[in-house]
Amino acid sequence: MLSSSTSTLRLHQPTRPHRRHPPAPAAGGTTHLGPSRRWRGPPPAAPPLRARPQRIRAVDAAQPFDYESRAAGLLEERQHLKIAIVGFGNFGQFLARTFARQGHTLLAHSRTDHSALAATLGASFFTDPHDLCECHPDVVLLATSILSAETVLRSLPVHRLRRNTLFVDVLSVKEFPKNLLLSSLPPDFDVICTHPMFGPESARDGWDGLPFVFDKVRVGDCPARRARAEAFLNIFEREGCQMVEMSCAEHDAHAAETQFLTHTVGRMLAMLELRSTPINTKGYETLLRLVDNTCSDSFDLYNGLFMYNKNSTELLNRLEWAMDSVKKKLFDGLHDVLRKQLFEGSAQVPSTSNVRK
């Protein structure tokens, strides 16, 4: 910003040839201008120069049909986003409720017709992905199951989207969707991989304090694109989430323990058909809640956690080893007790002198 001392802006005048002033008057006040002309008295003042309109030419002016530049400028000025949720199932609807409450414009697409439920949230539902993409959303949110993510993504006509659209996934594994998005989308598309570490059951009382993992895989070096990425992440920050920026590889290493192990134990306990009893302990009630929280999700989710996280196989082998180790310790202890009862207890070898002949 210019200070008050430099507030005057001067435009340089184009160079003009110097005008020759009349010669100074001779003694007596007469000046000779030529053989037939004489100038009497002091020379007249030069006529004022009329200001000529200045024309400023911009070298790098934006072209009138540069729609992307205009859209980027508008996007930078506004906080609300147009979000297309692809995969409008249980988890997609769960996120959509918060998006709608914050005032974002919602579009939805799914194989199942959820148009009635979308209408209650003020969202527009599209059965045809072409119609969805032609609405030019700012963000396309991939909220499908892990197993169907590749098929759904390849079915989207991404050529109908703006060429720098932001794609975000909320899958429970991260390296797989990262590689999928980078290999399937045009290079100008932005990509953020995220994982809300909560769901409809665990976040029924709100998102405050719950971890939200994200990795800005590819965001263009442009103010509008950076602002759009921050505006999306701000949705979760406003709800009080614990924002955790982490690489996709690091996420999967941790998630094998924090998520796959939890789901595995929950489903093992479900096979036991545990029931509440009149003498429940706090620990037992925790196990019952674990069964409810894990088994309320589809088996496809659990299967995806195993198939698309390379760390899950090793963890499953470790879990099996741990169970065998505990069993061995129990049975070894039982074997020691039986040995003591058999060979060091009351059992004695009978005396032959007491045997009747």
TrEMBL record:
<dbReference type="InterPro" id="IPR028939">
    <property type="entry name" value="P5C_Rdtase_cat_N"/>
</dbReference>
<dbReference type="GO" id="GO:0008977">
    <property type="term" value="F:prephenate dehydrogenase (NAD+) activity"/>
</dbReference>
<dbReference type="InterPro" id="IPR012070">
    <property type="entry name" value="Arogenate_DH_2"/>
</dbReference>
<dbReference type="Pfam" id="PF26213">
    <property type="entry name" value="TYRAAT1_C"/>
</dbReference>
<dbReference type="InterPro" id="IPR045011">
    <property type="entry name" value="TYRAAT1/2"/>
</dbReference>
<dbReference type="InterPro" id="IPR003099">
    <property type="entry name" value="Prephen_DH"/>
</dbReference>
<protein>
    <recommendedName>
        <fullName>Prephenate/arogenate dehydrogenase domain-containing protein</fullName>
    </recommendedName>
</protein>
<keyword id="KW-0560">Oxidoreductase</keyword>
<dbReference type="InterPro" id="IPR036291">
    <property type="entry name" value="NAD(P)-bd_dom_sf"/>
</dbReference>
<dbReference type="InterPro" id="IPR059064">
    <property type="entry name" value="TYRAAT2_C"/>
</dbReference>
<dbReference type="Pfam" id="PF03807">
    <property type="entry name" value="F420_oxidored"/>
</dbReference>
<dbReference type="GO" id="GO:0004665">
    <property type="term" value="F:prephenate dehydrogenase (NADP+) activity"/>
</dbReference>
<feature type="compositionally biased region" description="Polar residues">
    <location>
        <begin position="1"/>
        <end position="10"/>
    </location>
</feature>
<dbReference type="GO" id="GO:0033730">
    <property type="term" value="F:arogenate dehydrogenase (NADP+) activity"/>
</dbReference>
<feature type="domain" description="Prephenate/arogenate dehydrogenase">
    <location>
        <begin position="81"/>
        <end position="357"/>
    </location>
</feature>
<feature type="region of interest" description="Disordered">
    <location>
        <begin position="1"/>
        <end position="52"/>
    </location>
</feature>
<dbReference type="InterPro" id="IPR008927">
    <property type="entry name" value="6-PGluconate_DH-like_C_sf"/>
</dbReference>
<feature type="compositionally biased region" description="Basic residues">
    <location>
        <begin position="13"/>
        <end position="22"/>
    </location>
</feature>
<dbReference type="GO" id="GO:0006571">
    <property type="term" value="P:tyrosine biosynthetic process"/>
</dbReference>
